[in-house]
Amino acid sequence: PWKRRDFDKAALNDYFAQRPWDLATRLVEVFGSAWRVYWAWKADPAEGCDRGQVLVDSLQSLGPAFVKAGQTLAQRPDLVGEEAAEALKSLQTSAKPFENEIAYRTILEDLQHRGPLAPGLCPESCEDPHVAPLFQAFEAEPIASASLGQVYRATTHDGREVAVKVQRPAVGRQLALDWVSMKFCVAAYQYVVPSLNDYSILIDTALGSMFLELDYHHEASNAEEFKRRLSFLNFVTVPKWLPEYSGPAGTARVLSTEWIFGRRISDLPKDVGMEAVQMAVQACVVQLLLTGFVHADPHEGNLLYTDDGQLAFLDFGLMDQVEPKIMEGFAQGIQGVVAGDWRRVTQAMQAVGFISDPVQKLREAKSLTADYVDCEFEEVVQAVEEQMQAEEGGESRFSAMAAGLEKLSWRYLMLTPSYIVLITRTFMTLEGIAEKVDPGFNIYEAALPIAVRRAIAPRTRKGQAALREAVLLEGGQVRWQRLEELLAEADTEEATMASGSVREAWRLRHSLHKGHGSASHKAEGTFNVMDGLLATSDGTALRRIFDDMNLKEMVHFLASPTAKPWRRRAAAYVAELLRRP
Q: pLDDT tens for residues 168-226?
């Protein structure tokens, strides 16, 4: 019998190696569904075939891994087309539910309750109908159904409205079988169509992450950690979890959290939707570049614009950690794209391990044999620049850059570190949400202020040394012009609102909230590059630079007429020192 709850690849391979019929049956199901979708899409729409529904039904019939893929593709009409994307949206909130009776039994078993769920709701698994009900009220039908579970709305006896998430039955075994099936399909595909990319790494990352989502106590602790790390963004909120209404640690199949009152971004008026998009982008980029603790599944079903003007993140089963060197390299890349500095972009890709060091290319272009030779770095820089300029949206859309780099991988050695899955999924999903309310949205410009913050607050020794070398000469003399360039980017308010439509959204936000005390704290929570930096651990490198400056030279410069802006900065620095505990 299936008892595993972890992603042990060797054990999973051994398990299904002893059950080849299970794998064969699953492959027939997958290919059968793919065949139905193919012919539905080939058919003439005038014949009355709802091919979008055929696609959705096929993915739902295949189970959670395929539903999760559909949820992500729903945000990418540029990849799958408008019709398919519109149909796939239903998977984000209304995947095919499982039987209510199974869910009721799971709740009662996990919470060790013998009586009814609520007054008037006594399922077959209820052992004693005379015991006090578990909830004051419980809606009999799920209000949402997702790939790994479904959610019910309930009210506790003390009047709290809660969301009760129940895990699908046998979902762990299904994920394991899908992992083995996908690995088999990828191996067969690469045998028929040779490729230099190892797609199995992407499957391992995606399915391994889904296994983590099955641990509900892990999800609850993720939510708490997420809220703690983003506490400086006062517009971000997460639902509190209720351990007394959740299953036991290690085996929980039920997770209860407070109910969030809000709307999805696509349901908002355009002006408010633009505000919500900017909040979502800002919060997600802060995770990728500053906190390093990332919500890895920010599709529209997991984001709500609350009734009091906050952005609520839901579903914390799928999270990831980003290393400081990746955060710094990615920040450098964003700055390079905005500046049109493709050498800087290529250096950033090399720094994070996406491009080899030294750079290499195939001896024969588009060869299917991995025969690489070293090449000049400037050749790759030129190739990246030409490809991005040729790609539609290559200088404004992450998805276009990803497509361009995939084409370059047929000539140059491009590596696939595991973080690529996380960053690609997050940014492409955000782009899909943003483009619905602002077709001209430029995700690089929106991310620029946060990239600047990371650049002037490096965590790695290499990054700190590079910053020091950039602004400080031997003997403590300052490269004032370079330091001015760095801090000017941080100070300029235009950088925070680089897109005209986004800028208008923020202007509207503050005008709408003006005079409303409930929202004033949210305005203060919007991201400011320099806010509190010098008083935090992130400001260590910058503080050391200030401390090591040549005092005589610095005083002489600050007394000059050209140093008025620096005198204001110095006053702010002293003020922060005085406030520091």
A: 998 888 888 888 888 888 787 777 766 656 667 767 877 787 888 888 999 999 999 99
pLDDT in tens, 5-18: 677 888 888 888 88
> Three-state secondary structure along 102-156?
HHHHHHHHHCCCCCCCECCECCCCCCCCCCCCCCCEECCCCCEECCCEEEEEEEC
How far, CA to CA in Å, does 415 sit from each of 240, 258, 412? 39, 42, 10
pLDDT band at 255 (very low <50, low <70, confident <90, very high): very high
Q: How far apart are alpha carbons 13 and 378 in whole angstroms? A: 44
User: Token match 């639902």: residue?
Assistant: 239
Nearest-angstrom CA–CA distance, 569 and 564: 9
Asked if 73 and 85 touch (Cβ cutoff 8 Å), the reply is: yes
Quote the distance between the C-alpha of residue 535 and its chain's center.
28
Question: What digits encode the pLDDT tens for the residues 340-391?
Answer: 889 999 999 888 888 888 888 888 876 667 788 999 999 999 999 999 988 8
Classified as helix, coil or strand, 163 is strand
Q: What is the DSSP letter of 412?
A: B
As a dihedral over the C-alpha atoms of residue 351, residue 432, residue 62, residue 304, rounded to 10 degrees, the angle is: 110
As a whole-number percent, the residues of the chain with pLDDT over 70 amount to 82
Q: Is 283 helix (H, G, I), strand (E, B) or coil?
A: helix
The pair of structure tokens assigned to 214 is 């099955």
Chain-centre distance of CA 546, in angstroms? Answer: 35
Cβ atoms of 110 and 248 within 8 Å: the answer is: yes
Q: Is there a contact between 297 and 462 (Cβ–Cβ < 8 Å)?
A: no
Paired tokens of 274? 């633009």
DSSP reduced 3-state for 311: strand
Give the count of beta carbons closer than 10 Å to the beta carbon of residue 9: 14
Amino acid at residue number 437: V
Instruction: Measure the CA–CA gap between 427 and 40, rounded to whole angstroms.
Output: 31
CA 93 – CA 146 distance, rounded (Å): 6
Question: Distance of alpha carbon 318 from its chain centroid, rounded?
Answer: 9
Residue 148: exposed, middle, or buried by beta-carbon count in 10 A (0-12, 13-18, 19+)?
buried
3-state secondary structure at position 237 = strand
Following DSSP, what letter does each residue of 82-100 receive, concatenated? HHHHHHHTHHHHBPPP--H
